[in-house]
TrEMBL record:
Residues 1-23 form the signal peptide. Keywords: Signal. This is ScyD/ScyE family protein. SUPFAM superfamilies: NHL repeat. InterPro entries: 6-blade_b-propeller_TolB-like, ScyD/ScyE-like.
Amino acid sequence: MRPAVVLAATMIVCAALPLPVEAAATASSPVLSAPRVVAEGLAHPRGIRALADGVVLVAESGREGTEPCLPRSPGSAGAEQCLSRTGAVSLFTHGRKTTLVGGTASLGTKDGAFAHGPSDMLLTPKGLVVVMGLANNPTGREALGEAGRELGTLAYAGRKGLRPFADLAAHEIAQNPDGGAGFAGLWCHPYAVLADGNGFLVADAGANALLRVAADGAVSVVAVFPAQTVTTPNGPAQVQAVPTSVVRGPRGSYYVGEYTGYPYTGKVARIWHVVPGQQPRVFAQGFSPILDMDVDARGRLHVLEVEYTGSPHTVPPPAGRVTRVEPDGTAVPVVAEGLTMPSSLSFTRDTLYVADNSVSANGRLLAYRLS
């Protein structure tokens, strides 16, 4: 990544940081315009970061894989996940695309239906930090060779590609924070990142944990999110938490949104309030699976949900919506239709951006003008 691009983009993001949730106002939502397509042809888009109006970072998890492959995985509808070098992070400036880092590791099915690679990113004074997903048992990563070692890490992007500095996959093998048993219980899928002083917070959707990464790459556990028992047509079932998003809360705390795992039944997803050193508590509940959260310019928390009628692998893919969460936990619809399996949202002062059609090699970046 060119130093000039890093410096300019960092100045933009520092000027556009949202207010903390504790400063939230209760004014009604702005009126949204019809969505405008900013970009198409995105390869399984995941996290996005709007730095200013018209300036957006996008993580693309990649395309179909070839070989080597990992065992069949629940993270890809039971299909093999195979390695490719098709992941990327791009900067869109008023629709013009600049690839900041390309050719990163990606695990994709051979038919291109699923891919896991770059999941989120963050601009820092030291450069671009990239979250590399895995969505698999981390003990199999070595079978992927040198390229596969990017997966399951937090990495800096440089001229020669990624430079991992924190190994979340190794942490899962050594610590297994949620204590999951068996092959599927040892799981790693770093998904979202938040700057935290000189280090970072990472929501690991595989470990069911919020992790802190120090500046030197040391990993520690901030919170572990418990499974819950839900009622299904076939009787009670245990549902994993699957944390997918983290935003800053009041007085040094954090809010974490959960996707919830199989069987994807009902509105059972929760938003957790995490105070370091204390057990997490439920702040709001009754959501469909949550894939991302952000706050608008007024400091109000918004969540991106997906509505399942069966499973994530149904055709057509699940619909999505954006919901505002009031300080008392009340949910208010913001975008109720027009989204198909979205993956991320990000606000500037005047625009809401959403990554849509994320389980596809033809994902889209949409913009809703606020007025």
